[in-house]
Design a protein that fits this description.
Distance between the termini: 142 Å
Helix content: 25-40%
Structural class: alpha+beta
Oligomer: single chain
C-alpha cells in the first residue's frame, strides 16, 4: 500500500502564471541600421526575456526608433535596466529606462453613450469597422461576400457577432396611434428600458470583439498597432460610465454623433489596394532581367580585341560571351544580391507607408489647375493712352504686388516729373552754389 503525503502532491502542482503581469524596459534610441535579430540576440542572454517590440522610424528624429523589451514579472527590472545602460550597439547607446506599469487600464468615456440614439449610431459605426477589419484580415469571408455586402449595404456578414443587429438598428414608432389620437393626446410612454439593455449588450459584444481580435479601442476611435508585441496586450480599454443625471438635449446628441463619426471615419475606410504595374513603372520600378544584364555588362571589360577581363575574379577571357558564362557559373551569389536589391526596391515602392517627402501644397494638381484657370486681372488704366485690361508698361512685377514697394525710378528721375529730387543734408549747412539761383 502506497502512502503519500497530500502536502507533497500540492507542492508538485504548478500554479498558473499571470501572463498579463510583466515588466518591461523602454529603449529610447534605436539606430535605423540596427536589426531586430541583433537586439533579440542581446536580450536573450538576460533571464526572463519574453519578446521585443520595435516602433516605426520617426522622420523628425532622424529615423531613429523606439523599442520595448518585455520580461517576466519576477525579474529585477532595475538591475536589468542598469546592465542594459552600458550596452552599445553599432556605436549607439540604447537609452534603456524602466517602463512603468499602466496607471489606469479601464478609462471611462462620456455618459451620453448610454443614450438609445447614440448607442444605435455607435452600433452602425462599429459594424462598419468590423466588416472593414474582417475583410482586411480575411476573417469570415466567402467568394460571394462582396456581392452580398453591396446588396445589403454592408450589414450582412458571416461573423456571428453581427447576427441580428438589424433588429436594433430599425426604429419603431406608433405612427398610426398618434395620428388617430392626435399628437397632444395623453398616452403612457413606452417602457424601453429592456430594449436599451439588449441594445447595449449587443454593442458590448461588438466592442469586445474589436478590442480583442483587431486591437481597436472603439470609444477611443484608435487602432493599437503591433499590440501583440507590446508589454501589455489589451492593456488599455475605454468603456461607458454611468448615464448623466440630466438627460442630454437633442443638439448634444447630434453633436456627439457627428464628432464621433468624424473621428472614427478612418477606421471604416479600407486600406488602399496594391499599386498597379503601370503606376509601379511610373515610379521607376526595376526589372530583374534588365538589372542582371546591366550587372553583367558592367563587369565585362574590354582590354583588347582578343582579351576581356572579369573584375570580379580578375580572370581574362577571349570574348565577352565567355565572361558572361563565367559570371553565371562562378558568381551566382552576386547575381542573387542583384535580385534581392531589385525585389527590395520594388517592395519599397509598393509600400504605402514608405518614408517620403511631403508634397508641397503649391505643387498639387488641383492648385496648379486653379492657378491656370483663374483669369489674370489688372487695375484700370490711369493713363488715358493705355488700354484697359492690359498690364502697364514695365511689367506687373512692381507696384503694390511687390510687397508694397514701388518701382525704383531711373537715374535722374522720370522725364517730365514735377516732383524735384530731395537732397538729404544738414539744415544748418550753407547753401550750395546752384541753390542761390533758385
Amino acid at each position: 500500500m502506497d502512502i503519500t503525503n497530500d502536502s507533497d502532491q500540492n507542492e508538485d502542482i504548478l500554479k498558473p502564471r499571470a501572463l498579463h503581469r510583466t515588466t518591461s524596459v523602454f529603449l529610447r534610441n534605436l539606430s535605423p541600421v540596427v536589426t531586430k535579430s541583433e537586439l533579440e540576440t542581446i536580450f536573450k542572454r538576460f533571464p526572463g526575456f519574453i519578446r521585443l517590440s520595435i516602433a516605426d522610424p520617426l522622420p523628425e528624429r532622424r529615423w531613429f526608433r523606439r523599442g520595448w523589451v518585455t520580461f517576466d514579472r519576477n525579474v529585477n527590472i532595475k538591475d536589468m535596466c542598469w546592465n542594459l545602460s552600458s550596452v552599445r550597439l553599432r556605436e549607439c547607446e540604447l537609452g534603456a529606462i524602466v517602463n512603468r506599469d499602466l496607471s489606469k487600464r479601464i478609462r471611462s468615456v462620456n455618459g451620453i453613450t448610454n443614450h438609445r440614439q447614440v448607442a444605435r449610431n455607435d452600433m452602425k459605426i462599429c459594424a462598419n469597422i468590423i466588416n472593414n477589419f474582417d475583410k482586411r484580415s480575411g476573417l469570415w469571408q466567402s467568394e460571394g461576400e462582396e456581392t452580398a455586402s453591396e446588396n445589403t449595404y454592408g450589414l450582412v456578414s458571416r461573423n456571428p457577432v453581427l447576427h441580428n443587429i438589424t433588429d436594433f438598428l430599425i426604429e419603431e414608432a406608433s405612427a398610426e396611434e398618434e395620428e388617430l389620437l392626435g399628437e397632444n393626446a395623453a398616452c403612457e410612454p413606452e417602457d424601453s428600458t429592456e430594449k436599451d439593455l439588449l441594445l447595449l449588450k449587443a454593442l458590448d459584444k461588438m466592442i469586445l470583439y474589436l478590442r480583442i481580435v483587431h486591437s481597436v479601442d472603439f470609444y477611443n476611435h484608435s487602432e493599437y498597432v503591433n499590440e501583440d508585441e507590446m508589454p501589455n496586450r489589451c492593456g488599455i480599454m475605454h468603456a461607458r460610465c454611468a448615464p448623466p443625471s440630466n438627460p442630454p438635449t437633442q443638439q448634444e446628441i447630434n453633436d456627439y454623433n457627428h464628432n464621433f463619426q468624424t473621428k472614427a471615419n478612418y477606421l471604416t475606410i479600407s486600406t488602399p489596394a496594391e499599386i498597379s504595374e503601370k503606376e509601379l513603372l511610373q515610379l521607376g520600378a526595376k526589372n530583374e532581367e534588365e538589372e542582371i544584364e546591366k550587372f553583367v555588362t558592367s563587369n565585362t571589360q574590354e582590354i583588347s580585341k582578343v582579351k576581356w577581363l572579369c573584375p570580379l575574379s580578375g580572370k581574362k577571357f577571349k570574348g565577352p560571351e565567355f565572361v558572361r558564362k563565367h559570371i553565371f557559373n562562378k558568381h551566382i551569389d552576386k547575381l542573387d544580391d542583384v535580385k534581392k536589391e531589385v525585389k527590395c526596391f520594388n517592395n519599397y515602392l509598393r509600400d504605402p507607408k514608405r518614408p517620403q517627402l511631403p508634397e508641397h501644397p503649391g505643387n498639387s494638381k488641383q492648385a496648379r489647375k486653379d492657378v491656370n484657370d483663374a483669369p489674370q486681372s489688372y487695375p484700370p488704366a490711369a493713363n488715358p493712352y493705355q488700354m484697359s485690361g492690359y498690364p502697364p508698361y514695365g511689367g506687373a512685377g512692381f507696384g503694390r504686388g511687390m510687397y508694397g514697394y514701388s518701382r525704383p525710378p531711373a537715374r535722374g528721375g522720370f522725364r517730365g516729373s514735377g516732383r524735384p529730387i530731395i537732397h538729404y543734408r544738414d539744415l544748418d549747412a550753407p547753401k550750395e552754389p546752384e541753390e542761390n539761383f533758385i
